[in-house]
Amino acid sequence: MPEIPGDRPEVLVQGIAASQGIAFGQVFLYLQNEVEVPDYVVEPDKRAAEVARFEQALLQTRQEISGIQSEVEKNLGPDEARIFDAHLMVLEDQALIGETVRAFESTHHNIETCFSRISGKYIKAFDEIDDEYLRERASDIRDVAQRVLRNLLGQSARNLSQLADKRIILAHDITPSDSAGIDRSQALGVVTDSGSKTSHAVIVARSMKIPAVVGVRDLTQRVQDGDWMIVDGYDGVVIVNPSESTQFRYGQIRRAKDTLQARLMEANRRPAVTLDGVAVKLMANIEKADEVALVKEYSAEGVGLYRTEFLYLSEDKMPSEQAQFDAYRAIAAGLAPQPVVIRTLDLGGDKAMASSAHLFGEEENPFMGFRAIRFCLEHTDIFKDQLRAILRASAHGQVQVMYPMISGSEEMAKANALLAECKVELRARGEKFDGNLAVGAMIEIPSAATTADILANHCSFFSVGTNDLIQYLLAIDRVNDRIAHLYEPSHPAVIRTLRQLIDVAHARNIPVGVCGEMAGDPVFVPLLLGLGIDSLSMTPPLIPAVRYLVRAMTMTDAKALAAEALTLISAKEIYAKCDAFYRARIKVD
Ligand code: PEP
Ligand code: MG
Predict the structure, then answer these.
(1) For the CA atoms of 235, 483, 517, 268, what is the dihedral angle to 10 degrees?
(2) 3-state secondary structure of 432
(3) 109 noted as active-site residue
(4) Is 232 in the pocket of ligand 1 (CB under 6 A)?
(5) Distance from first CA to last CA of the chain, Å, rounded?
(6) Which residue minimizes the CA distance to atom 4 of ligand 1?
(7) Whole-angstrom Cα distance, residue 138 to residue 136?
């Protein structure tokens, strides 16, 4: 155990947990300094050469980035390498390049000054947008601009290959170029001042399978190179200069977590079959095409919920049929022959698009407002673009479609009529698709649950969105902290609703899955299975814990648990039974 100097007090900082695991080691403080840009006026006879110098620097930067990209593709894979496409696009951005040249032609200040000023303007504009994804574009431009400036000034780029021994990297931010240089054998963990769950540092840390915590604000200013640090990527905590007792405590936590994780991952390679031989289908919830690798890593049996909103929100514009087709096909083909359930657009509520705010309008109560299928049935042009893209993707894998926020059979009938129109249009265009594409309804509004027998005439599967179903059944806003304690998945109303739904569906040979958060919570899994749920879909990293539990229980016991839960009168009692069931099988204290 290292001796921490007495004048270095222990500091605990809460950040955002970004990549699981616990690391302990010394800090490599990585401070990227901005390039110093000289400012001077270029003599008339050197002006033509100045623009050529700029073009040469852009070319050199392009070659460097392409080199890094192929290196990353070799070491990390094509998904991580694709990050650099955004960088290469910055170099082709006609607005940025053209404005720089025009600024030079009108001011005759050296090209570094013009480029630094214009790129700074774009970085500031993106930085100020209240959207995580677009703010990431600011760091793309900053990264590329620094590279171009270094090349103009003949300076060599800094990188993270200087890790002489095993260290925890602490930086304000880690750009894709930085991360490409990281010596993977020497990096113990990654901590960044800035960042969110979608930042590049996170993607890289996850792919390197090392712990990461982001969003620790000004930690780089409070920590010295060589300080000792614990990175807890499970809870998003960073402890600088941990005392002996903290080190001891974390040593124990790490051993317990490592043992548990190893047990879970070991079991994850085995089939999800209960002790009495019942197979349980565990599927993945995804939001992006590049999550296909994650689905495979966690051995999910396909995708039970692909939330397509990300496509719309990331670009903040309505994606074209072709752009959607490309994304859906990549997932369908990447996972074939496993099924991929594509959920049509669920915008509105908490998922608003700034650029299309006029289409949604201001609402007093957006969660019960103009969202999801309600929006799609009015904006049929937008909806049909998506349906055609989904249909076309069905020619490349096992695609199924499902509609969100269905409240009754009329909506189902209208949506299906539009789907039929799309099929006619695609046939006329000579496009291929699966003529028997399975259609499902999300059951997340109480009226859909109570009219499931009627809905069954319009679809071939149900998927229960417990996140919304609980909110509407109990009238508890799912994003309101003040009433969060009343949001109880074990409420008798939820259990009874599921029981009735499953009975009605199974009598009509309609399978019922759950794709809300409840499906990934091991405490509720036996109850759901005991009630007769046919498949569970969850965020991939939750699969090992659920699979482990499935393999440690019997379906007979799960059915007895569900039968008992149906006789109990309070959410607390039902929860206690589920919790005891789980603990007895997983043997946690
Ligand atoms: C749900 O409501 O349970 C669900 C899966 O949909 P979302 O969380 O996207 O609303
Ligand atoms: Mg929902």
Answers:
(1) 40
(2) coil
(3) no
(4) no
(5) 28
(6) 465
(7) 5
Q: What is the edge-to-edge ordering of all strands in the sheet holding 187-192? A: 11-14, 237-240, 228-232, 22-30, 167-171, 187-192, 212-214, 16-19
Looking at the CA of 470, name the nearest ligand: 1
Helix (H, G, I), strand (E, B) or coil at 430: coil
- Of 114, 376, 459, 515, which is the active-site residue? 515
Q: How far is CA 15 from CA 218, 219, 253, 255, in A?
A: 11, 10, 19, 22
Which 3-state string (H, E, C) describes 269-291?
A: CCCCECCCCCECEEEEEECCHHH
Task: Please say if 422 is a catalytic residue.
Answer: no
Reply yes or no on whether the pLDDT at 562 is more than 90: yes
Q: For a pocket test of ligand 1, which of 312, 467, 497 has the largest count of ligand atoms closer than 8 A to its C-beta?
A: 467
HSE, side-chain direction, 13 A CA sphere, residue 393: 31
Q: Choosing from 87, 200, 396, 491, which is the catalytic residue?
A: 200
Cβ of 515 below 6 Å from ligand 1: yes
pTM score of the predicted model: 0.66
Contact status, residue 448 vs residue 497, Cβ threshold 8 Å: no
Beta bridge partners of 463: 442, 513
> Containing H/E element for 117?
helix 111-127
Residue 50 contacts residue 114 (beta carbons within 8 Å): no
Q: What is the pLDDT of residues 317-371, one digit of tens each?
A: 789 999 999 999 999 999 999 999 999 999 876 566 656 667 777 777 878 888 8
Q: Tell whether the torsion through CA atoms of 472, 478, 479 and 483 is positive or negative.
A: positive
Residue 351 Cβ < 6 Å to ligand 1: no
Rounding to the nearest 10 degrees, give the CA dihedral for residues 560, 566, 572, 577. Answer: 0
Cα distances from 268 to residues 208, 293, 433, 530, in angstroms, run 20, 15, 34, 21
Q: How far, in Å, from the CA of 558 to the mean position of ligand 2?
A: 26
Instruction: Name the closest-CA residue to atom 8, ligand 1.
Output: 467
444 lines ligand 1 (CB under 6 A): yes
From the CB of 465, is ligand 1 less than 6 Å away?
Answer: yes
Amino acid at 374: R
Q: Ranked by mean pLDDT, which of 37-41, 360-364, 551-555 comes out on top?
A: 551-555
Q: For residues 231 and 190, what is the distance between their CA atoms, to the nearest angstrom? A: 8
